[in-house]
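Action item from last week, closing it out:
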Amino acid sequence: MNLFVVLVFLMPLQVLNNSPTVQCFMRNLLPILHQYYHPGDLIIAGIMSQVRTFLNAITFEKHPSKELSDDHTFLTQTYQHIMALAFAVKEINENPQLLPNVTLGFHILNSHFSASWTYQASMELLSSQSRFIPNYKCDAENTPVGVIGGPTSNVCLHMTTILSIYKIPQIIYGSAPVMNDRTQAVFFHQMFPNGTHQYEGILQLLLHFRWIWVGVVSQDEENTERFVENVIPMFSERGICFDFIERFPKISFSSNVGDLMTEAFESFSILMQSSANAVVIHGEIHDTITFRLIPWGAEFVGMPMKSKVWVMTAQMEFTSLPFQRSLSIQFLHGALSFTTHSKEVLGFHRFLQMRNPNSEKEDGFIEDFWKQAFNCYFPKNGLEEMERKICTGEEKLETLPGSVFDISMTGFSYSIYNAIYAVAHTLHGMHLFRFNHLKLAVRERRRFLNIESWQLQRFLQSVYFNNSAGEPVYFNKNGEIVAAFDILNWVTFPNESFHRVRVGRMNPIGPSENVFTIQEDAIMWPSRFNQALPHSLCNDNCYPGYRRTKKEGEPFCCYDCLPCPEGKISNQNDMDDCFQCPENQYPNYNKDTCMPKSISFLSYEDPLGISLALFALAFSFITALVLGIFIKHKDTPIIKANNCSLTYSLLIALLLCFLCTLLFIGRPEKVVCILRQTAFGIIFSVAVSCILTKTTIVVVAFMATRPGSNMRKWVGKRLGTNMVLSCSFIQAAICIVWLATSPPFPDFDTHSMTEELVLECNEGSTIMFYCVLGYMGFLATVSFTVAFLARKLPDSFNEAKFITFSMLVFCSVWLSFVPTYLSTKGKYMVAVEIFSILSSSAGLLSCIFLPKCYIVLLRPDLNKREQLIRRNIK
C-alpha cells in the first residue's frame, strides 16, 4: 500500500493512468468498506478511525488482499464521533440563518488507525466517486471544502501528507502530530488545545495532591516519545520523580491480539509491583484497549490487582475490543482523566435515540456498530446464527452500558461538533464577503458552490463564533483552538457502566488564580483507599519536627527523616531543613511550632525577688540600728577610739549598699538601668574607701607614736576625708566616662533562656562594667593587705584584725561572683549580683561592727578607759 502512495507522488499523472502495473494494483485494491456519504451542495469530509483490523499470519492459501479483511472489529465507543459530525451537519442545514440556500453534505471514511488506509482514504477524496483514480475528478461538486481528521495523531500526520499538496484545510480533533514540514502545518487547524497546557495541568494536579512518586506508562509511538523526552524532565524540575517509565506495546495494522498481550504482561508486572499509587497514562484513544488488559494481565502473572489512581491524558478515550466486553472495569474507579472541554449540546441525545439501522442506509458504519454493540446479527441470504440473537434495529442506544457506548457527548465529539460549525461559519463569512464586496449577487450561489478549498484557509484562521451551547470558538495564531481542559473523575458501577464527573479544570485563558482548579471533595477515590486521599510517596512523609535527608543511590524523592536539632523546628511535611524560630519565640517540645516567649525579669511578684528584697530591707534596718547605737553611744571610749566620722560614713555607705539592691528588682527602665551599676559601684567604693582609710589611720597612728617619727603630721581628720574622697572620685570618674560613652539601657536577651525573653539592663560597655568591678576589687585588695599587715599592732583600739577578716569575706564573695555571674542566665544573673552585694555588705557589717555592738550593749563593763588601758598594758 505504501509503495503505491510513493508511485502516486513520484510519477506524472499520465504515466500513472497508463501504467499497467498501477492499473492492475488499483483493480486489486481493497475498497474502504466503511463509508458514510450524505449528499450536499458543499461536502465536508471526515477521515476517522472506527474499525480496527488485526492481521493474521498470511498462509498464501488465498489472495493476500482478502486476508487483510478477515479479522476486523468495530470500536463501538468511537461511533459517537460520526454521530457528532452528522448531527452538526443536520443542525446547520436546518438553521436558516447559517448558509441559507446552501446545504452541507459529508463524506466519512474509515482509516483503520493505519497509515496505509489513511493514505487511501485521502486519495479517495481526490478521486471520482465511482472510480478510484487519484488526482482525477469529474464531479467537482464532491470535492471537500475541508477535512475533519482524527482521532490519533498518526491519522492526522498521514492525512496531511497528501491533502496539504492540494491546499485542503484540515481540522484535526485528536492530538497534534509531530510535523517535520512546516508548510504542511499551515493547512491544518487543531480542535485539540495546546498540549503544553495539559501537561502543566497534570503537573499541577500531582503537586496539588503531593503525588511526587509516580509511574508513567506511555505508548511506543512518536508522539508519546516526545512526551517522555520533553515533558518528564519538566516534571522532575518541579519535584516529581518516577518509579518507572514503561511503554505499552504498539498496536499497529499488523498487530496480533495474542502477541500484544504477551508483550504487555511484563509491563503489567512492573506496574503492579510498584509502590507508586499515582500512575500517569499517556497515549492515544485506542491505547485504552491495551490499558483495559491490566486486570487480566495481573491475574495472568499471578499478582493481586492493586488499585491505583490513573491519571490519563486527554488524547485517550474509553475504547475496547469485543472480547473485552466481559472484562471488569472496576480498576478504573477513581481514575482522573483530562479531556478537551465539552458541554452537553441540546438535541444530541434525541438524535442518538432516533438512530436506526433500518432507516440509515447511507451510514456504512451503523450495521457493524449495531451488531457489536448489541451482540446480535443481521441475517443475510436466509442464514441464521443459532448462538446469537437477531438484530431488530429497534434496540435503544441508551440501554447500552457506558463501557459499550456513551450517549453523553465526549470531548472528542464536542471538538468534531465545533469543527463542523467552524467550517460552516467560515463558509458563511466567505459568502457574505463576496456578496457585500464583489457585488456578484446574481451569480454568487453558483460561484460559491465552486469554491476552491484553499480559499477557505484564510477565513478559517480568523473565524469566531458562539456555538449552540453558548461557548466561544476561535483559533489562536498557531491554528489551535483556544479552550480549556476538563478534569474528569471516573466512577464505575457493578453493571460495567461508568460515569465521568467533572471535578476540575485547566483553563489557561482564565485569571491566574483560576488557571488550575480542582474540587477535591467531589472526587471518588479507588476503593482500597476508603475515600481517603491517596498518598504516592517513595516513603512516608517527614512530619513536622523532622527534616529529610537524601538516601544514597535512590531517586531524590526517596529520603530518610531526621529530628530537628535543638533550637530549630520544621512546621511542614517533607522540609529539607529545619529553621530557627524568631527571637521572641522558642521551639515547642515536638519541634513543630514556635511558641511565644514569656517576658522574664526579677520582679517583686517573684518569690526570689520578694526574698531578696526582704533580706535587703532587713539588713538595711540592722545597719540603721547599728548606726543609731553608735550615735547614741558616741561618747563611749570604744566608739571614740575608732574615728566616729569614718564609722558613720561606713555605716551610711553600707545602708545605701543594702538599699541599692532594690534597684535590681522590678521591671528594668532606662533610668533604673543607668542607676543600678553606677550607684552600686560608687557606694561600694565609698564603703571600701572608708575601710581602707580606717586601716591606714591605725597604721599611721602607730607609726606616729614612735620617737622621732615624721608621721605625726599625717595624723588628723584631714587624712581620712582626703582618702575617702580621692578613692571615691576615681570610681565616680570611671562611671561618668561609662555613662558618657555607652550607658546601660533596657534590652531583651533572646538567647540566654530557651522559653523566656529576658528583660534586662544591658551594660552597654562590658569593659566599663568590669573596670568598675576591677577598681572596687583593687581597693578591697589594698584594704585587705594593709589590714593584714596591721592586725598585730599592740593597740587596744586596733580594729585591723576585724577589718582583715571582713575583707577576707568581701574578697571571697566577689572573686566567686565573676564565674558565677557568667555561668548563670536570665533573671538569675541579677539575683547573683544582688546576693553578692548583700552578702559582702553583711560580711563587712557583721565582722566590723558586731563585736563593738556586743561590748556596747552586752558588756558595758569593758567599754571603760581603765579597762582598755589595762588590757593594753597586759
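Closing note: Residues 1-27 have pLDDT under 50 and may be disordered.
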